[in-house]
Amino acid sequence: MVSQLLTSSRQPIYTTGDDYRALSRVSNSDLTRLKEEHLGYWSVPSARFIPEKTKAFGRAFHQHLLEPETVGTVLSQFLPDMMEPTINTDALAPAQTKQLATLMRTIRQDAFCRRYLRLSERERIVLSTEPTTGIACKARLDMVYTSPKRRNTMVIDLKTTSARTQAQFLESCYTYDYDRQAAFYIDSLRNADGREWGTTKQFRFVFIGIMKQSPHRLFAVDATSIPGFIDYGRKKYRFWLRKWHDEQTTDQLVAPAWSMSA
Predict the structure, then answer these.
(1) For domain 17-45+120-260, which CATH number applies: 2.60.120.330, 3.30.70.20, 3.90.320.10, 3.60.15.10?
(2) What digits encode the pLDDT tens for the residues 80-89?
(3) What Pfam families is this protein classified in (predicted)?
């Protein structure tokens, strides 16, 4: 069982879905695409080579857990010819249905996950301005818990994983630039437009990994407790933000097409 960490004030989510993707701001995913373009798609782990069925299942996993009110939309991605907004999970492939149900049950039975699914804001969108470059950024966080007096904030990010041990999951955090993601998200809160987290004293970032295959173990990595993890991630995202800024200046500040996506 994942050990308990922190309790929440809920803040309104002021934009979602297509509205978020349409925002002409830079996201962490944009930096991944920029890195791929500069280093070559085959030189770094790339989401573009993940099978479409795997991507669809990943979307279903997150939306079943974090946005259950949109489940009909998610299921329609598996069965695009069925347009009803409420599609029963029985319509999914039996193996997918069983796997999805097992992952949901595993997470909801864990005391830590159950607590923060209840207390956190889910799919929270944060708009910010990165102070060293002045670039407008955006981030969509799986779960954000802010203590009642707003002194402490914890971000929880959920990952399905093929790792079978804690060590393998930790290794994947480096392989897939999760250090950059954690730093980008924490700094997005620190620099949020409107200074919503301006009085927060401590930020924590926890990755929760769940094995996609049996026995569906849960792994937890407190990214903020690993020496140098956030600092190195911050150097990474600032490097690619500067690269993005330089390209925009060269291109007369016209944003590339990929900067409009999530």
Answers:
(1) 3.90.320.10
(2) 333 333 333 4
(3) DUF3799
